[in-house]
Amino acid sequence: MSRVDDLFIQNCRDILAHGTWDTDQNVRPRWEDGTPAHTVKMFGIVNRYDLRAEFPIQTIRRMYLRSAVDELLWIWQKKSNSIHDLASNIWDAWADESGSIGKAYGYQLGVKHVYPEGEMDQVDRVLYDLKNNPASRRIMTNLYNHQDLGEMALYPCAYSMTFNVSGKTLNAILNQRSQDMLTANGWNVMQYAALVHMMAQVSGLEAGELVHVIADAHIYDRHVPIVEEIISRKPFEAPRLLLDPAVTDFYEFTPGSLKLEGYQFHELDTKIPVAI
Question: Could you say which of 69, 148, 186, 260 would form a disulfide bridge with 58 (CB–CB 3.0 to 4.6 Å)?
């Protein structure tokens, strides 16, 4: 059994068995028919993934690494807030008539700041420090800019990454304020695991641990039967990640730079309703 499947199954079992329902509250999310989208949740879930042992992509359902990396690079490499720069349609519901999601996600990473070493945005600052100041305990990014929240189509969910180098190993902590376990957990874990691998390679380091901290880990009411079906399945062994070794510049990575070897998965035929 792959560890990512094991953790997801255990997380969901804990949420369903011991979580707190918000059915007595007035909630913001709605289903397409206008019905309130209620959740059962647990607070403060922390998962650790050893990227040296396996690549954390779920096998109990099919995951689309290429699309996930495309979104990741849209945010971290293109630093874009325009859905026209994204290959998928996953952000369409949040975009305005011009295709912008406002001052969210990639926009925040692309804002330049002045440092003693020169002017850099958040991503370039991380890349600079990993190569020049690997002992620093200040290598991090933050998308949750209170000054700009009013101009964001959606407040950042995965809002902060902290990078830490131990010897020649790059570790990272992903902080997430909110996590839709069915639609986003597996997606975000493989995305940011891929990011750690990419950051490590271009910095002459080895990818180590990804620690995922989730403040509000929840399952939507209409997702419960789908989750129960998925976590009843027997996982396959984790596949191997193949990262193009020729890439030495973070800005040269493409979704095609990452491939999976030996990826087996269960198909999910049920259409997943989306709460907005």
Answer: 186
Tell me the C-alpha distance between 222 and 272, whole Å.
9
State the pairing for strand pair 140-142/258-261.
unpaired
For the stretch 25-67, pLDDT in tens is 999 999 999 999 999 999 999 999 999 999 999 999 999 999 9
55/105 Cα distance (integer angstroms): 25
Which residue of the set 123, 157, 182, 219 is catalytic? 157
Q: In the structure encoding, which two tokens stand for residue 7, read together?
A: 């953790």
Q: Show the tokens assigned to 177.
A: 């304020």
Please give the biggest Cα pair distance in the chain. 54
**Res 237 pLDDT > 90:** yes
Beta bridge partners of 204: none
Residue (of 113, 174, 164, 114) closest to 138 by Cα position: 164
Is the per-residue pLDDT at 1 higher than 90? no
**Buried/exposed code over 140-154 (b: 16+ C-beta within 10 A; e: otherwise):** bbebebeeeeeebbe
Q: What angle do CA 166, 172, 177 make, to 5 degrees?
A: 150
Cα(146)–Cα(199) distance, rounded to whole angstroms?
27
Q: Is 91 helix (H, G, I), strand (E, B) or coil?
A: coil
Give me the residue label for tokens 């259409």.
Answer: 271
Three-state SS sequence of 101-121: CECCCHHHHHCCEEECCEEEC
What pTM was computed for the model?
0.97
Helix (H) or strand (E) holding 173: strand 169-180
Contacts of 261 (CB under 8 A, 6+ apart): 239, 240, 241, 242
Residue 157 a catalytic site member: yes
